[in-house]
Structures are given as structure tokens and as C-alpha cells.
Amino acid sequence: MDKPLVSFFFATLNRKDVVQETLEKLHEQEYRPIEIIVADNCSTDGTPEMIEKQFPGVKLLRLTRNHGAIAARNIACANSKGKYVVSIDDDSFPGKEAIVRMVSEFEKDEKLGLVVFDIYNYDVHIKHYHDEAHIPDERQSIEKYNWSGCGGAYRREIFETHGYWEEWGRQAPFESSVSAKAMLMGYTGKQFSDIYVFHHWSPVGDPATFRRSEIADITACRSTLFFAVKFFPMNSVTLIFLFKLAWITVFHVFDTWRFTLLKGWFSGWLKVHYVMKERIPLSQQQVNNLSISLNAKGR
Amino acid sequence: MKILIIRTIQVPLALKLIKEIGEKFGGAEISVLTNPQQFDRVKELSELKQVFCTRSRRDYSFMTIGLMNILKIRKSDFHSVIIPHMQAGIGGFGNVLAILPLLKIRNWFHCSTDWKLIEIKKSTLWTLFLKTLLSAVFFIPMAALTLVGFLYVLIADRKIRDLSKTKRWYAGYGDL
Questions:
Q1: What residues contact residue A80 under an 8 Å CB cut-off, 6+ apart?
Q2: A57 CB near a chain B CB, below 8 Å?
Q3: Residue A186 domain-assigned?
Q4: Chain B CB within 8 Å of residue A137 CB
Q5: How far is B91 from chain A (nearest CA, A)?
Q6: Which pLDDT tens digits describe chain B residue by residue (176 residues)?
Q7: Can you give the pTM of this predicted structure?
């Protein structure tokens, strides 16, 4: 029987060196057949030229403008053909045998819709790339639906049925939006100790790598609100969640003397009717399983 | 000398911090208060004397840390506490700060992104108290707006659902 096609995709912007390493490592994957799709958000540092020259087999989507990380990811995903789609960051890549194991888990369990990759810090663990010494001796798996964006795999049917990641999303809500859709279709999500990615670590608030903008805070707060309105059942638990969001928003103003979250909160409530139209509420139990944090600042 | 670290996010980051503490306080006994997600990995570290675990993987507020942990920490008689919030994200720093006076630890530190320890002044607590007070005043109208928004979503959701339940109506000759 033919093995199913696995599609890897990621979005990038001006990160030539890490993209080069990620693509090299993806080509070292033991699993075949694979396809790799890169959505380039108009990089100016020669990233697309490098990909075209060094990795001619990679499907490069040269976007005409910077669409942002999520829209670019969606475009890449829409251009993939695999039965299983693996979303990674431009600075993360799976272990050499991780995809073999991932496909075997998907094929074994028809109800498994999402595999959340375990994350290993690149700087510390990359020396074990070949010997896998970082993996615990005993194989473990837990039910998990929230993930950090740098490594997650889905069945294609989820995207075909309920669409891609919410483009209003940011950070946790963005990733969990497809997990919520997987739940609606009755799929489960799991994390396995030997299915993992290596991920470069960027410290929060480090001026050298601080790539946050005002708009990021605004969308982070708004997308948390939108996520609740779109996927949460309207009950007292959701009301408390929304109160907490309001508290975090107002406290942020006095804590930092910045109005970014407040702007996001107001713009969220003013535009909430757009999300109302596409509301697909989960049960309270499913929402609890999603473990959405009140991470309004997107950190 | 006994040192407590609150809010460790990953083992490699803990190791960096442990190294920094070793340089500042030579021969210190280091303990960590971490969350259940990191607990299994953190407790494997031989550099640590004791590992405390919060009740759930949320913020580090009083309810999440739990009274038992607070009592255990009080009994342990720590010399200093370190909160590496710059590396773990600053979302819950206020929550951790608010419980510090309960822990019976005299010296409080947080650290910069390059892992240098910086003392937290006691006046920071007063600032936090004032910020909370101000926030509480402005929270009232925001809570009211939230309630209105929630009711809007609730009613609109019901209406959309009711509409989808009704039988589709077709215009017949009698209606024209």
C-alpha cells in the first residue's frame, strides 16, 4: 500500500539562515513521500532566491505583500496536497524519525485528528539530533489540543470541512482555532514524547529579538475575545472568562501606561457581530480541553 | 543559603538561571516552584534541592500555588526568591509579586533577559496595590460593557438558532 503524502509548510519573513537550516533538516526526514511549502511574506534578505537556488524541490509561494504569519500559513496550507499537514515555524523542524512515528499514529487511530509535537530547545538538544538521547526512555502520550505553533500535524479533512486558521487569531487562539474545529468533527488531539520538534528559543522582551509591535498587542487581545465568542458556549464560565479579559485589559493600562490592549478590547466588541455570524460553539468540556489561557498580551 | 525560584518555564532556561545563581551566591541550595507541566522534567535536575509543584498550569496566583505549598515554603526558611519573569513572559508577574509577602522570604529578585539578578524593591508592592486600586475603579464600567456584549451574543445566538429551527417558508399563490 502506498504511504500517504505528508505536507510540511511554514511562513517566513527575512530569516534566511534559519530557513536554510530548517529546509536542510526537512530533507533529512526519514519519511517519504513529503512535500515542503514555504510562503514567503516578501523577504528582502534573499530568502526566496536562496530557496529557489538550493532547494528546487520546495514549493515556494512568493506572496506579493506581507500578509502576516497566519494568512501566509493558510495560503501555504491551501496549496498543500498531503493527507497529513504539518505546520511548523521557520525556525523549527521535527526530529528525523518523528514523522514516521506521527504517520503511524495517525494510521493506527482514525479518531486522532491532531498531533501536538513536543518541543526541544534547539541550543540545548540539537547535539542529540542523531542519537535521540533527549527522548524519555518510557514512551508517553497525553491528550492535548493547545500547541505553540512550532509543531503540529492535522488531518486534511479538518481544513476542508471547517476552513483554515482564523486570520483574526494570534498566538494561542490562532493555533487552537483548528484544534477546536478538529474537536467539532469528533477528533482527538495527542502529544507523544517521541514526536517532537527542535525549536530556536527567543527570549521574551529581549531587545535583540523583540519583534512585537503595537498591532500585535491589539490583535492578541481582540482575538482572545473573538475566540471566546466564536467557540465558547454562552454560559456563566464564559462570562467569567470575559470579565477576566476585561480585568487584564484595564490592569495593563495602569501597569504599562499603554492603551494597546484597551484598543484591542474595544475594537473586538465593536466588531463582534462579524464573528457572531460564524459562531460554532463547543461544549464546556471541549473548551476546558482546549486550555485556552487568558494570554491577552499574546505572550 | 537557600534560594527559591518561582516560575521556571523550561529545563534549559532553569539551567541558565542556576548557573547565574551559582555565580552570585556560591554554594547556594536551590529549590524551584514550577507548574505540573514542567514538574517531571525539572525534578530530574540534580542541581535542585527541592521542587514544589503548583496545583494547575495557570498563573502563579495564590489559588494556583495553594496554601499547602505556601506553608511548605514558609517552613523552608529561604534566604532569597527569584522570579525569572522576563524569560517566562510578564503576564503573571503581578500575581507572583502579590504572594511574596506571604512566603516569609526577605530578599526578592527578578532577572533581566541576560540572566543578571536585579533586586525587587518593596515599594514595588505599593505600586502594584495602587495600580490594582485604579484598575478596580475603571473595571466597573468595563465589566458593565462586557455584560452588555455577553447578553448581545447570547440573544443573537439564540435568535440565529431559533431561525435555523423554523420550517422554511415558501410564497404560494395565496400569499401573493
A1: A7, A9, A35, A37, A156
A2: no
A3: yes
A4: no
A5: 7
A6: 888 988 766 666 677 778 888 888 888 888 988 888 778 777 777 788 888 888 877 677 788 888 999 999 999 999 999 887 665 544 567 778 888 888 889 899 887 767 778 888 888 888 888 998 999 999 999 999 999 999 999 998 888 777 666 555 555 555 44
A7: 0.79
State the ipTM, two decimals: 0.81
Q: Tell me the three cell numbers of residue A252.
A: 495593563
In this structure, the answer to whether residues A57 and A114 fall within a common structural domain is: yes
B101, three cell numbers: 509577602
Asked whether residue A192 falls in the same domain as residue A239, the answer is no
- Interchain contact, A204 vs B149, CB within 8 Å: no
Residue A37 falls inside a structural domain: yes
Range of the domain at A245: 214-290
Q: Number of helices and strands (H, E) in chain B?
A: 7, 6
Nearest CA among A157, A168, A98, A162 for reference residue A129: A98
In a domain, A207, yes or no: no
Regarding whether A180 and A38 lie in a shared domain, the answer is: yes
Beta-carbon contacts of residue A187 (< 8 Å; ≥ 6 apart) = A111, A112, A113, A114, A155, A158
Contacts of A255 in chain B (CB under 8 A): 94, 131
B43: cell is: 525534578
Please count the residues of chain A: 299
CATH of the domain at A143: 3.90.550.10
